[in-house]
Amino acid sequence: IEVTPYDAKAPYYLGNLLYDWQPAEAIRYWESSASLDPGLSIVRRNLALGYANQENDLNKAISSLEKAVSAERKYAMHFFEMDELYQAAGVSPEKRLAILEKNHEIVNQRDDALSHEIALKIFAGKYQEALDLMKNRQFNVWEGGARFNVNDYWTDAYIMLGHSEMAKQNFRKAIEYYRLSIEYPSNLQTARGASSGRYAESSLWSGIAYQAAGDTKKAAKEWNAAAADIRERDRIMMNSETINMFYQAVSLKKLGQKEKAADIFNILITSGNNSLKNRDQVDFFAKFGQQQSQRSSLGNTHFIIGLGYLGLGKRAEAESEFRKALEICPDHHYSKIFLENTDWKF
């Protein structure tokens, strides 16, 4: 640095060496590097990392990554990380999708970046486009390394296509799509069938479609399959797998076991409300990763409470919870879907 004070690479490399043990000093060197070469995108990316994780300044981090992705040479990793920051900051899904679609050729270079584009396409109702992206790519998922869950997006897309066919009274086509929702192709590198965490959801909707088509025997078979592995419990954890209990309980209700179903719906509400005690807001002073996790957890908790109310026929209370989930997580797909489909009866 003393010999070549105008070389932007020297403070960049020095910042890299210092970051783990002296992050504030590392950030200072990266800022010096950025001032010497504003187009060095990796420096902008590193600064975003420092601003988010060390200074807890999400807006500053976003601004830095926006400069990184605006550089002449673009990297898929930077788009992925910027969208992670956007998601944590509650940026609108529409804005996020527009950026990823505009830069699709770059985004398509990484599985994790592409998975964000796929998720946002599903939120926007572009189900077939999302499926096409999943069908035409070999995803590489390894233990402890993946930052995406493509099989959930596969299920989401086909479930939504099934709903579209139901609205048009194409019941057989809807059943086909509901079935496909848990039949994962090998390129997604995931399990399939009854081992899927979404099996009850697929079976519930298949049963509803069979019932609409006049085949009550097959409808009952689907609902029995959905509720087959239900477990008795007094309290539950607030996570995505818990949503499965709602579809199992609705299946029980369809089979005439209304009291047992109501017990499960009440457990969803009670456990959700207990989980919200002392934490019903995002801690904006938490570090970036913690804040991101809090936002997702709170959104899912309100959604699960809403499902409990919906199962009990209390739609007004359910919609209130779904709106809270969307306020916290603007990209919470199923809160949006349940709010839009007011004619669904459970």
Poorly predicted runs: 282-286
Give, in order, the helices and strands. Answer: HHHHHHHHHHHHHHHHHH
Number of β-strand runs: 0
CATH class of the largest domain: Mainly Alpha
Binned, the helix content reads: 55-70%
Give the CA-CA distance, first to last residue.
68 Å
CATH topology of the largest domain: Serine Threonine Protein Phosphatase 5, Tetratricopeptide repeat
Summed over residues and divided by their number, the pLDDT gives a mean of 89
Structural class: mainly alpha
- Which percent band covers the strand fraction? under 5%
Spatial extent as radius of gyration: 23 Å
Gross geometry: elongated
- Number of helical elements: 18
Description:
The protein is mainly α. It folds into 4 domains: 7-73, Serine Threonine Protein Phosphatase 5, Tetratricopeptide repeat (Alpha Horseshoe); 79-148; 149-226, Tetratricopeptide repeat domain (Serine Threonine Protein Phosphatase 5, Tetratricopeptide repeat, Alpha Horseshoe), CATH 1.25.40; 256-346, Serine Threonine Protein Phosphatase 5, Tetratricopeptide repeat (Alpha Horseshoe). The chain is built from 18 helices and no strands. Helix 4 (58-69) runs antiparallel to helix 5. It is elongated, with a radius of gyration of 23 Å.
